[in-house]
Write a structure and sequence with these properties.
single chain, mainly beta, six-stranded antiparallel β-barrel, signal, protease, Trypsin_dom, limulus clotting factor C, Peptidase_S1_PA
Length: about 300
């Protein structure tokens, strides 16, 4: 079995957007407002998470357009823009990510529709005439970081990014589904799917092509908590999900903000995001910890605008 520690490439990447002189505004999140009646309308209904379900063993290249909701966050670099975090497109204007991704450094644009980084055109390896449309780069209007995010305890690691312009949905750019129904919120998959641009082995060569892997769920919070007892600051609670095993497939440095998900029944089989990559002890060194999206659905919609 091939082991994979997904690692976003941290190099300089070509981009048509100019680096701005001013930083993107970062707002503190609002508390949930139960009087709002337009909340669910802000998230896509049936038009999300379209997914062809395949069994994944270990780490392998993802198919072109298999994860069309993945986003790369672009930051200022010494020689141009570079990417350090991921996110997921949740509607035509918003990307869901981790609070850590808009904390120390501030992204200024989002790239959607990427498959192989640094390649001008993404095409099917078995058919050179079957190519995806170009990537879409969008400036960020502002970001909203959870008002109670704590860098030491790793609590409330969630944020929203609002794009200056709406994204045009195409085959390679589509929104992901969130666990908005009671049934989905209470769903506990035995395994999850992770995806990112990275290494096919923990100490192997970096792959510029999108990778995917399956990781087992770790439902026992006490087992997950034991991984972090030495820190004395981290408490695993119902705002977290744990997944992965020592030496197995895992997310890694640079994957913060990316999705943990799995296909579920939602008007057909849809890919649903259950977690946001948050932290761990290191690449493939025991379970990694993810923000539990189901616990933050009300916060997400409370901090979105039409």
């Amino acid at each position: 079995m091939v082991k994979m520690a997904v690692l976003i490439i941290l190099g300089v990447l070509q981009c048509t957007l100019q680096q701005p002189n001013e930083q993107v505004p970062i707002k503190q999140g609002n508390e949930v407002d139960p009087t709002r009646e337009d909340l669910q309308d802000l998230l896509p209904g049936n038009e999300c998470g379209h997914y062809v379900q395949n069994r994944i063993i270990g780490g392998q290249n993802a198919s072109m357009m298999e994860f069309p909701w993945l986003a790369l966050l672009g930051y200022r670099g010494p020689h141009g823009p570079d990417f350090h975090c991921m996110g997921t497109l949740i509607n035509a204007r918003y990307v869901l990510t981790g609070a850590t991704c808009v904390y120390a450094r501030k992204p200024y644009f989002v790239r959607l529709g990427e498959h192989t980084i640094g390649q001008d055109k993404d095409c099917n390896v078995n058919d050179a005439s079957d190519c995806a449309p170009p990537v879409q780069d969008r400036d960020i209007e502002y970001a909203v970081r959870h008002q109670s995010y704590d860098t030491r305890s790793k609590q409330n690691d969630i944020a929203l990014i609002r794009l200056k312009e709406e994204i045009t949905f195409e085959d390679h750019i589509q929104p992901i589904c969130l666990p908005v129904t009671t049934e989905l919120r209470n769903n506990n998959p035995a395994e999850y799917i992770i995806a990112g641009w990275g290494k096919t082995e923990q100490f192997g060569e970096i792959s510029e092509t999108l990778q995917k892997a399956t990781v087992p769920a770790v439902p026992d919070r006490d087992e997950c908590q034991r991984q972090f007892e030495a820190s004395g600051r981290i408490t695993i609670n119902d705002g977290h999900l744990c997944a992965g095993v020592d030496g197995g497939a895992d997310t890694c440095n640079g994957d913060s903000g990316g999705p943990l998900g799995y296909p579920a029944q939602l008007n057909g089989i849809r890919f649903v995001q259950y977690g946001i990559v948050s932290f761990g002890r290191g690449c493939a060194r025991g379970p990694s910890v993810y923000t539990n999206v189901a616990k933050y659905i009300d916060w997400i919609v409370a901090n979105m605008e039409p």
